[in-house]
Amino acid sequence: MNSGRVVFTFATTTSYLEIQNFVKSIEAMSAGRLIITPHPAGELAHGSDIYTAVSENRIQMGNGWPNWWSAQHPAWAVMNSGPFDFMNIDASMMFFYEKGGIELANELSIPQGVLWRPAWWAGMEFGLVSNEPITGLDDLKGKKVRIGPGLPSEVLVKASQSMAIPLVPEEIKPSLESGHIDAVEWTTSTGIIDLGLMEIGAYGIVPAIWQPSVLADFLINKEAYDALPNDLQAILESAIKSYALTTTLKAKVNDIAALTILEDHGMTLQKWSPSDIERWRVAATALTTQYKQKDDFSRRLIDSKQKFKQEFDYYYQYFGPYE
User: Fold this and answer.
1) Which residues, in sequence order, are CB contacts of 150 under 8 Å at separation 6+?
2) Burial class, 169, CB count within 10 angstroms (exposed 0-12 / middle 13-18 / buried 19+)
3) Most-buried pick from 156, 230, 234, 299 (CB within 10 A)?
4) Residue 263 lies in a domain
5) Is 108 inside any structural domain?
């Protein structure tokens, strides 16, 4: 992996633009001994195939979202921040970096020759964008909604009786434009602008109950990684952590600005009602229970996350925002 190829999910996002600095810093820190060439999704692999491509060493690194890998093991569907999971980016960061989350993810990935690392945190996702008003769960009944696979799509279907369509990024805008789908779930306010969805969808219902503190991930081919000398491994690990912090902060600052842009563009925003949130909670609790019953690993993962969430929430009862 002294030279390698890495696939990223979408070429105009903050995360992809920031990857240019990531690969340059690795080249500089390694004095040209480690060269990584980024490719946008679709050139070498896309969607759930990114995991397989990394596992087979067709590409040496990949970038995506943990729930995309749910076909590999059911627990990937709950690895990310699911409904009523971590409500804060910092809680999710603490769990993965300091409370065993990275180690749990690698229990799943290493047997398939893949090393797993957090890439960056998008945080609370946007919700749904549509070209007709959606005021609550009842309006979604029978509608076709683009949403990511795994727990996000499952809880949406259970709570709203809608149909989940797991399109990859390049398929989303034309599908909404043609009427093939009625609403779109896609990352954050910046992501809505990146895909040009505000040109079609004038309405948004927020936030994304199904992913309150979402993170993206890096997949690294283990054989290629192990072939690196120790200093290049250390450089790569350091650069990944730097990328995670920088991209998380820049992306959230961009999201704040993007919300104003969407409103100025004429998008009408609607929040979920308290009664809808309770319906989401009932659906989420039922599905989480089902996942815990699927296998021992999923149970351990969910229990570990819920335990730390309780500790985090208890602490912030005393030291949370006072304004």
Assistant:
1) 67, 68, 70, 76, 77, 78, 80
2) buried
3) 156
4) no
5) yes
- In angstroms, what CA-CA distances link 112 with 33, 80, 128, 153? 27, 19, 34, 25
Residue 262 near residue 192 (C-beta atoms within 8 A): yes
Indicate the pLDDT class of residue 11, thresholds 50, 70 and 90: very low
pTM value is: 0.92
**Does 273 fall in a domain?**
yes
For 149-208, write each residue's pLDDT tens digit: 888 899 999 999 999 998 988 899 999 999 999 999 998 999 999 999 999 999 999 999
The answer to whether the beta carbons of residues 188 and 114 sit under 8 Å apart is no
Residue 6 has pLDDT above 60, yes or no: no
Question: Does residue 160 sit in the same domain as residue 66?
Answer: no
Which amino acid is residue 241, in one-letter code? K
> If DSSP codes are grouped into helix, strand and coil, which group holds residue 217?
strand
Residue 114: give the domain boundaries: 3-122+213-257
Residues 52 and 173 in one domain: no
